[in-house]
Amino acid sequence: GYIGTNVVNLLARAGENVIVVDNFSNCVRSHIDTVCKLYKGRVIVRTADLLDSFEMQKLFEEFAIKKVVHLAGKKYVSESETKRDLYYKNNILATDKLLSLISNYGVDKLVFSSSITVYGNAKVVPVDESAPFQPISYYAETKVEGEKMIKSWANRYGDVKANILRLANPVG
Fold first, then answer.
1. Which of 166, 158, 32 is nearest to 112 (CA)?
2. Which of 33, 50, 79, 143 is 20 to 30 A (C-alpha) from 87?
3. Catalytic residue among 87, 119, 138, 139
4. pTM for the whole thing?
């Protein structure tokens, strides 16, 4: 997607080797292919789903991944209300599976893209990070749940770092 393509571009430009794992259900593959051409050998793309434990294990074994930027998930507020099972599967269950997987492979750094929607209709703008969660959509609820799982994971494995980004209008 838009955010992922830009993150990969920035990481590769900074000299990082990047493994992109995507099922391409939310985006156009040609965007990331353009970045791959710019940074030949630095960016590798694999089509896989976070829910496919076998494929994900193979990737972690092949590349010895130690840092993860988790941008995967369904992203449309209105769609989340009518396709709750899909959002549960892609935003909550996939995050849970990823956390289990990275715990087994010694990942020590995780960045997760959450959303400002976790605050609902904020009374004060700009929103302070300490504001209470007040999700008003199922999409926001899935982001709150993802944050809770990640905080619990980071607390359980004290030698890991987790950063949560609550993005707001990342394009405009």
1. 166
2. 33
3. 139
4. 0.92
Q: Which has the closest alpha carbon to 33: 17, 23, 20, 14?
A: 20
Please say if 39 is a catalytic residue: no
Contact 21, 69 (CB under 8 A): no
The helix/strand/coil state of 1 is: coil
Return the H-helix or E-strand segment holding 110. Answer: strand 109-115
Q: Does residue 169 contact residue 118 with C-beta atoms inside 8 Å?
A: no
CB-based contacts of 18, cutoff 8 Å, min separation 6: 8, 11, 12, 39, 42, 43, 44
Planar angle of CA 25, 164, 148, nearest 5 degrees: 90
Task: Give the pLDDT confidence of 85-122 residue by residue, as tens digits.
Answer: 999 999 999 999 999 999 999 999 999 999 999 999 98
Show the CA angle centred on residue 11, arms to residues 7 and 15, nearest 5°: 165
| CA atoms of 4 and 70, how far apart (whole Å) | 9
